[in-house]
Write a structure and sequence with these properties.
188 residues; alpha+beta; Aminopeptidase; binds coenzyme A
Amino acid sequence: MTHKMEVRFPLITERLLIRPVEMTDADALFKYRSDRKSNKYQGWIPETLQDAKDFINTAISNKIDIPDTWFQLVIIIRSGSIMIGDIGIHFLNSDNCQVEIGYTLDKNYQHKGYATEGLNVIIDFLFNILNKHRITASIDPRNKSSISLVKRMGFRKEAHFRESSLIRNEWTDDLVYAILKKDWKKII
Ligand SMILES: CC(C)(COP(=O)(O)OP(=O)(O)OC[C@H]1O[C@@H](n2cnc3c(N)ncnc32)[C@H](O)[C@@H]1OP(=O)(O)O)[C@@H](O)C(=O)NCCC(=O)NCCS
């Protein structure tokens, strides 16, 4: 079945609101994304606020569900309207039925279940609104929190590429985790 339902944002969960990134998010995004320690396994770390603005500028020019582009969402705590992280969706060009996801939380809001709650609604959206077939995540094997997160969502490990990514002059291994629509069960 290729029928897709209408895409409507924001997505709302018990504690969170998830919507496309906006330029006014630049300060908050720069603050947590520039934290080198918390983001040590991430390929992109902004050096300056302008880097964050450039990132957002590219992101807001992308429409959702276009092959070979990323669509960038932000995670907001509903009570207090605090922006605590972001989720990126990479629409792959193979058949327009597969996506890769990336996610980052401000370290002050980790270990509270927010990433689990946010990914739960995003994965459900990707499978049941955009009718995607398969979702993948690419993870540094040392990134235990990220591995726990995708395992909690029901992803399985499908590949371990040795020294396949050059990140800040270090050849790093890359794990690929994936989940199929037919295996997806909402966890919250
Ligand atoms: C990857 C990342 C988003 C995971 O964040 P996280 O805080 O571990 O994930 P959650 O928000 O879902 O929180 C889950 C943890 O909170 C605990 N928790 C506390 N309250 C909870 C609640 N109400 N509901 C669910 N879990 C709760 C869970 O037990 C779990 O702990 P555990 O991992 O020790 O088992 C975070 O580590 C991050 O942003 N890292 C930096 C960026 C990064 O590396 N991104 C991934 C690139 S591949």
